[in-house]
Q: What sequence folds into this?
């Protein structure tokens, strides 16, 4: 049986000013999931629930087949978790941290760690305190990667990195996926990274999952349709339109279920059908969902 | 918008290109095959190796390979990998079949006209000479 690496079903967590609710998602082995949402949408809370750092008020969470938070200790042996909030001990060197990880985790891969030190341009003798933001992020990633966990859960792994460092990190993540028994879930609001390397995408907004699914299907389904109506003509009523803007004879439609059938329905006045990038899809999706939820 | 360019056998993916990434990959693979750089039978990089090499999701490469397979450009043998299809071999076979069909028809018409074998062969040689003159 092909066990899912992450399974969340109807998860709810109440805070005083924020509620995460009806969170369901699945991550298969061998896949990268991009977890996208605006600030304060509940991305970090969801990741912390997966890690058993907070307990859900309702719903089920299974990670690597283990029930969370009950069996979190077993699950965590095979999970690498990195978040921007993590701080290395300021007065210890990167080398000390690597040695520390080696002593705890029998799977620690010393030669891979050495390779990563080179690829990330890090210096093991350097104190954590004097690392730049980018170096700090790369150091925490190195400590997680070199354990060779089956599942990597990364909270905003590329935020604050310069383009070169981001490229280095993304290459390393893609390298992990050469092994189809491993998987990655990473949260980000950099939709360019997500669009490029994710197999599945989950959108979250205001504590709810907006949509979760196959990236290629997302990019295929969402389209912008431009129509120019001749005087007197009207556009027929069309299904699956999430946004409609009219400016005189010019109408722009956004659909989340594009098909040739829809284009034919729209009639002969369609001037252009455009694909949308993930950022445009994300914004349109979030706005549409807020409208339909009456917020 | 920042754009990451990666390299794998010179294949480039541009995120500012309006075409989807899987189409960009398909086009560049087709070009390599058409130019003869990737000859028939050549094994393509595995889906995961190409994904890692291009820093593009596995699902995108899968989609490109699947569509190339549907087009008959590559052949995927389960558990063995993907290979450049032997298009010339296939085309050659088709031409052989076509020739056999036409020759059969010519023989049939020749019989109806009461031509002898030598007369029919002479007509074929004449047709060949006409073709040479034209080209």
A:
């Amino acid at each position: 049986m092909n066990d899912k690496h992450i399974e969340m079903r109807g998860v709810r967590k109440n805070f005083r000013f924020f509620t995460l609710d009806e969170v369901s998602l699945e991550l298969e082995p061998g896949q990268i999931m991009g977890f996208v949402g605006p600030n304060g949408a509940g991305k970090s809370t969801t990741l912390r629930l997966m890690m058993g750092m907070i307990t859900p008020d309702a719903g089920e969470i299974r990670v690597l087949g283990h029930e969370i938070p009950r069996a979190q200790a077993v699950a965590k042996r095979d999970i690498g978790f990195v978040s921007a909030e993590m701080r290395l001990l300021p007065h210890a060197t990167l080398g000390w941290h690597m040695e520390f990880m080696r002593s705890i985790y029998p799977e620690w891969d010393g030669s891979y760690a050495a390779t990563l030190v080179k690829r990330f341009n890090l210096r093991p003798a350097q104190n954590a305190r004097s690392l730049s933001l980018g170096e700090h992020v790369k150091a925490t990633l190195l400590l997680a990667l070199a354990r060779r966990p089956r599942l990597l859960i990364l909270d905003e792994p590329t935020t604050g990195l310069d383009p070169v460092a981001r490229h280095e990190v993304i290459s390393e993540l893609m390298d992990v996926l050469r092994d189809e028994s491993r998987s990655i879930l990473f949260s980000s609001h950099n939709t360019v990274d997500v669009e490029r390397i994710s197999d599945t995408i989950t959108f979250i907004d205001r504590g709810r999952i907006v949509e979760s699914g196959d990236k290629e299907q997302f990019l295929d389904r969402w389209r912008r349709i431009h129509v120019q109506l001749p005087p007197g003509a009207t556009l027929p009523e069309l299904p699956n339109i999430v946004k409609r803007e009219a400016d005189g004879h010019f109408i722009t439609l956004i659909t989340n279920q594009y098909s040739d059938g829809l284009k034919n329905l729209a009639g002969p006045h369609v001037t252009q059908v455009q694909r949308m990038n993930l950022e445009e899809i994300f914004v349109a999706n979030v706005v549409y969902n807020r409208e339909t939820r009456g917020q | 918008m920042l754009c990451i360019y990666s390299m794998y056998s010179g294949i480039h993916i541009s995120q500012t290109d309006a075409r989807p990434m899987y189409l960009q990959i398909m086009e560049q693979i087709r070009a390599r095959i058409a130019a003869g750089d990737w000859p028939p039978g050549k094994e393509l990089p595995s889906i995961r190796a190409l994904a890692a090499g291009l820093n593009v999701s596995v699902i995108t490469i899968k989609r490109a390979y699947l569509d190339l397979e549907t087009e008959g450009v590559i052949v995927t043998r389960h558990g063995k990998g993907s290979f450049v299809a032997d298009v010339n071999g296939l085309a050659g076979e088709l031409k052989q079949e076509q020739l056999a069909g036409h020759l059969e028809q010519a023989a049939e018409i020749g019989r109806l006209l009461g031509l002898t074998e030598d007369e029919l062969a002479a007509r074929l040689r004449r047709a060949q000479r006409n073709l040479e003159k034209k080209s």
In short: Chain B has five helices and two strands. The longest helix of chain B spans residues 87-113. The longest strand of chain B covers residues 74-77.
